[in-house]
Amino acid sequence: MASISPYGKRFISYLRRGQIRRLISSGNRLDGRPLDQYRDITIRTNVTNTADGSAEVLLGRTRVVAGVKIGLGNPFPDAPDEGVLVVNAEVLPHASPYSEVGPPDETAIELARVVDRGLRHSGFIDFKRLAIDQSKVYVVWLDLYVLNDDGNLVDASNLAAVAALRSTMLPTVVKDEAGAYKLDKNNRTAMPSDLSKAPISVSLGKIDTRIIVDPILEEELSLDSRITITISQDNIVSIQKTIGYFSEQELEQAIELSYKSKEFLKQILLKYLV
Questions:
Q1: Buried b vs exposed e over 112-137: b needs ≥16 C-beta within 10 Å?
Q2: Minimum mean pLDDT among 74-78, 153-157, 178-182, 253-257: which range?
Q3: Rounded to an integer, what distance in angstroms lies between the CA atom of residue 216 and that of residue 32?
Q4: How many CB atoms lie within 10 A of CB 11?
Q5: For residue 246, what is the enclosing H or E element?
Q6: One biological-process term from Gene Ontology (predicted)?
Q7: Alpha-carbon gap, residue 34 to 212, rounded angstroms
Q8: What number of helices (H) and strands (E) belong to the chain?
Q9: Per the structure, how many domains does the chain have?
Q10: E strand spans, 113-198
Q11: How many CB atoms lie within 10 A of CB 69?
């Protein structure tokens, strides 16, 4: 396994960082995009036959694959009438020069948690319909694999997660002769999801007073601050700041940009998933 090295171990040359910061301060970017524009996005679903649901997302050169496996288990004590979602993230050793062999570190864990939080609080998945009875529920294992890191892993992973869950087919639950529950993988139904409630994460960075969306890796390593805002329909369901700070005025600008970007990303999802 591999993980993303903490920000302290990720670096960029002083000259390169200065160039990037000067460009953004003047309203320009390395790849020629406007400050508020995403890179090209491609989504493919059902990319593996061994998962119950899967998707691959290309966000520029950032590439993430999501896979879903369905199992049976016990509900959480505080949600006895809901299914269980478990999200994990892994960065493959070749995905980035900053990846390290070993267990997931705090940054990879944070990636999984940000995606999990948006899914859990958006209403995209109807977890109550994943309950079988008071003692048994569906357990949804969602694994995120970063194949190439060119920045903005959160948004790419979020899109991959939504697409993989949307493509998931649940095995039917039956009882065997002993009365125990088991999965019948020959009979399936679609994952209970509502695409109109899909969580859309928008990651934004700040350099001086300029705010950008969808930073590439070199831009990420040059940022003063970074924040991810996840929106479902018209509601903000989570905000996660990773580095730096935003003034009240800058936060308002970031929120305005996130709503604008949410509309673009939602159209991308509808293009590939409907």
A1: bebbbbbbbebbbbebeebbeeeeeb
A2: 178-182
A3: 12
A4: 12
A5: none
A6: rRNA catabolic process
A7: 8
A8: 5, 13
A9: 1
A10: 137-148, 169-175, 181-190
A11: 16
Mean pLDDT across the chain: 92
The dihedral built from the CA positions of residue 209, 233, 111 and 213, taken in this order, carries a sign that is negative
Residue 114's domain comprises 2-273
Tokens 């903005």 belong to residue: 152
Amino acid present at 238: S
Q: Give yes or no for residue 94 having a pLDDT over 50.
A: yes
What residue has token string 């940000």? Answer: 114
pLDDT digits (tens, 9 = 90+) for 113-131: 999 999 999 999 999 999 9
CATH of the domain at 245: 3.30.230.70
Alpha helix ranges (H) inside the chain? 14-25, 106-122, 153-167, 217-220, 248-273
Of the pLDDT bands very low, low, confident and very high (cuts 50, 70, 90), residue 71 is very high
Are 112 and 118 contacting, i.e. CB atoms less than 8 angstroms apart? no
Mean pLDDT over 103-107 rounds to: 69
Rounded to whole angstroms, what are the CA distances from 24 to 17, 191, 227? Answer: 11, 42, 17
- Please give the pLDDT value at position 103: 67
Fill in the amino acid letter for 5: S
Residue pLDDT, tens place only, 131-159: 999 889 999 999 999 999 999 999 999 99
What is the pLDDT at residue 204?
98
Residues 6 or more apart whose CB falls under 8 angstroms from that of 15 comprise none
CB 151 within 8 A of CB 220: yes
What is the average pLDDT across 184-213? 96
Side-chain-side CA neighbours of residue 200 (13 Å): 24
More confident residue, 177 or 174: 174
Q: Alpha-carbon Rg of the chain, whole angstroms?
A: 20
